[in-house]
Amino acid sequence: MIARIIASLARFLTGARAHWHGCLPEAKLRVYFANHTSNLDLVLLWASLPPELRRNTRPVGAQDYWSSGIRAFLSLRVFRAVLIERKQVTKSNNPLRPMLAALEGGESLIIFPEGTRNPNGEVNEFRAGLFHLAKARPDVEFVPVFIDNLNRVLPKGEFLPVPILCSVRFGTPLKFADSETKPQFLTRAREAMLALRPQ
Amino acid sequence: MNLDSETKYLFGGTLGILTVASVIGWVLKARITSESGRKVVDNLVSRTNAWWVMAAVFGGALAIGKLAPVFLFSFTSFLALREFITLTPTRRGDHRSLFWAFFVILPLQYWTLAREWYGLFSILIPVYAFLFIPVRNAIAGDTEHFLERTAKIQWGLMIAVHSVSHAPALVTLLEIPGYTGNAKLLFFLVFVAQISDVLQYVWGKLCGRHPIAPKLSPNKTIEGFVGGSLSAIAAGTALWWATPFTPLQAAGMSAVIVLMGFFGGLVMSAIKRDRGVKDYGETIPGHGGVLDRIDSLCFAAPVFFHCVRYWFTN
C-alpha cells in the first residue's frame, strides 16, 4: 500500500516510462543491475516493473545505510529489501548469502553494482559482488538497467524532490559464460549498462 | 452543469471536425501504399486520436465550471514546466529554487485565479518570482553560470506558468458587459490557436515549397503559414457569435492569436534546436510533449487576454 503510494508519487514527479529495449517484463528469475545516482533509483526501478513482477522482486541495500529509523521501515517493511554488509565483510556476514537465498526462494533482485550513489551522473567501476552472484547462479538472467536524470530529481543530500522527466531503460539480459574472468564479466556488464545511456 | 446553446454548438462542431479527421485518416490508411506515405498517415492517425482525448478533457473542463479550467491548466503548466526544466541543464545549486518554482509559485499563480485576484495574478511571476529566484540561488551559493541558470528558471516560469495561466484567466478574471459564459472565450482562444497549427501543417504538407526558417523548423513553409493563417482566421471569424466580438473584431482577434501562435512555435523550436532535440517530450502520442502542443498558446494567451481586457471590459 505505502509502496504503491511512493511508487505513484515517483512516477508522477518523473513521468517515467519504462523502455524495454532488450527484453520484456516477464516473470523470469532475474537480477536487475542499475546505475545509482539517487535514493529514488530503487523506487523508480521498482515502480517501472509491472505490479505482478514487483511482488517477486526485492532490492538489495546496504545494511549500514538502511537499517535504522524511517529507512529501516521503508527498506524492510515497504520494499522488502535484502540488506547486505558492505563495510566489514567477514565469512559469517558474506553479502552473497542473503542474495543467493532470495534467488533460491524464487525472488528476483535489484542491485546497484557501483556500491554507492554517484551524484554527478557518471557510472563508476562495478564492485565484485555482481560477478560472484553471476558465477554462483549462471542460470539467472542479468538485466542491465539505465536510469536517466534521476540525480536531478533528488540529488544526494537533498530531501525534497523536484519534478524532472526521467527514463528507465532495460537492456538485453546477460548470462555468465564459464570461461569469463572477473574483469571480463564486470566490463561486459558495465558496457551493457552504458550502452543504454541516451545520447 | 448547464450548457448554453452556443456552447453546445461549439462542442458539436468540434465533434464534427474530429469525426471528419478520423474518417480521412481511415480512408488514407486504406489507400496508401508507399512506405514513406504510411509513416505520415500513421502519424496523422495517432495525432487525431490524441486530439480526441485532448478535446474530451478540455471540453469536460469547460462544461464543469469555472474552477475546472483552472485545475486543468495548472496541471498543464506543471507538465510544461517539467519538460522545460528537464531540457534545461540545471545544477545542484538550483535544486531548492526549482522546488519553490514547482510547488509554491506555480500553485500560488493558479490560486490567484481561483481567488479572482487580478493584481497578484499579473505580477506574481514577473515581479516576485523574478526577484525571488536569483535570491534563492544566491543563498545556495553556486556562482557558476549564475545569471544563465537563474534566467532559465525565470524563463520557464514565465512561459510555462505565467503565460499559460492567462488562458483560464479568461474565465475567472474577466467581466465583459453584456456577455456571459466566458468559457466560450477560452474555447475560442484554444480553438483558433490549435486549428491554426493544424491548418498550417495541412497546407504545408499539401503545397509547402519555401521554408520560412529552414534552420529552425524545416516543416514551416511560407505557403503553409499563409494558407494556414488565413483559413484559421476565417475559422475564428466564423465563431464570432460565441464571443463578445463583431465578425470584424473576431477576425482581428483571430489574427492576433494566429500570429502570436506562429511566433510561439518559432521561439520554442529555436530552444529545441539549441538543445539538439526534436520534441520536448513524449507525453502525447504523435504530437511530442505537452510543450510541443501548447507552444503557440504560450505566446497567444497573454496577448489575447490583454486585448480582451483592454477593449472589452470596463
CATH topology of chain A: Glycerol-3-phosphate (1)-acyltransferase
Number of domains of chain B: 2
Provide the helix percentage of chain B.
over 70%
Order of helices and strands of chain B, N to C? HHHHHHHHHH
- Taking pLDDT < 50 over at least 5 consecutive residues as the criterion, the unreliable ranges of chain B are none
Low-confidence stretches of chain A: none
Q: Whole-number average pLDDT of chain B?
A: 92
Query: Radius of gyration of chain A, Cα only, in angstroms?
Result: 16 Å
The CATH superfamily label of chain A reads Glycerol-3-phosphate (1)-acyltransferase
Strand portion of chain B, in percent?
under 5%
Report mean pLDDT of chain A, rounded to a whole number. 87
Q: What summary fits the major beta sheet of chain B?
A: none
Short description:
With 199 residues, chain A is α/β, with parallel strands linked by helices. Chain A has helices at residues 2-14, 40-48, 51-54, 63-66, 69-78, 96-104, 129-136, 150-153, 182-194; strands at residues 17-20, 30-34, 57-62, 82-84, 108-111, 141-148, 167-170. The longest helix of chain A is centred in the first third of the chain and has 13 residues, at 2-14.
Notable characteristics:
heterodimer, A: 199 residues, Glycerol-3-phosphate (1)-acyltransferase, 7-stranded mixed β-sheet, B: globular
Please provide a written account of the structure.
Chain A has 199 residues and is α/β, with parallel strands linked by helices. Chain A has a single domain, classed as Glycerol-3-phosphate (1)-acyltransferase, CATH 3.40.1130.10. Chain A contains 9 helices and 7 strands. The termini of chain A are far apart. By secondary structure, chain B is mostly helical. Chain B has 2 domains: 1-64; 66-312, no CATH class. Chain B has 10 helices and no strands. Chain B has helices at 5-31, 35-64, 67-87, 95-114, 118-140, 146-172, 183-207, 222-237, 247-275, 290-312. In chain B, α1 (5-31) runs antiparallel to α2 (35-64), α3 (67-87) packs antiparallel against α6 and α7 packs across α10 (290-312). Chain B is globular and about 60 Å long. Classes of the chains: A alpha/beta (199), B mainly alpha (314). Chain A binds chain B through residues 15, 17, 119, 149, 152, 155, 158, 160, 162-165, and chain B through 78-79, 81-83, 85-86, 90, 92, 95-96, 98-99, 102, 281-283.
